[in-house]
Design goal:
About 25% of the residues lie in helices and about 20% in strands. It has three helices and three strands, in the order ββαβαα. It has a three-stranded mixed beta sheet. Strand 1 and strand 2 form a beta hairpin. The longest helix has 8 residues. The protein starts with 10 loop residues before the first strand and ends with a helix.
């Protein structure tokens, strides 16, 4: 597991499985995360994100946003 490679207090576990938060992980709700992720590596486990990407594979244009790349996604979308 990726967390085993990280120094304590340098990462945060975030995830959901089938839409439900995983025990021991923070909810992937951006509003709840925004003040908790500064200067930390986010290790994300998700089933919903994978399903959503798979379902959108035939889209003409697909933008995938996260807390890390949100600004870049906004720039692309506003062009």
């Amino acid at each position: 597991m990726e967390a085993n490679k990280q120094t304590e207090n340098t990462y945060i576990l975030v995830g959901e499985e089938q839409g439900m938060s995983i025990d021991g992980f923070m909810s992937p709700n951006p509003v709840r995360l925004k003040d908790k992720v500064a200067n930390k590596t986010v290790i994300l486990a998700t089933t919903n994100g994978t399903v959503a990407l798979k379902n959108a594979v035939s889209a003409k244009r697909l933008l995938v946003a996260s807390l890390l790349n949100g600004g870049a996604v906004v720039e692309v979308k506003c062009r």
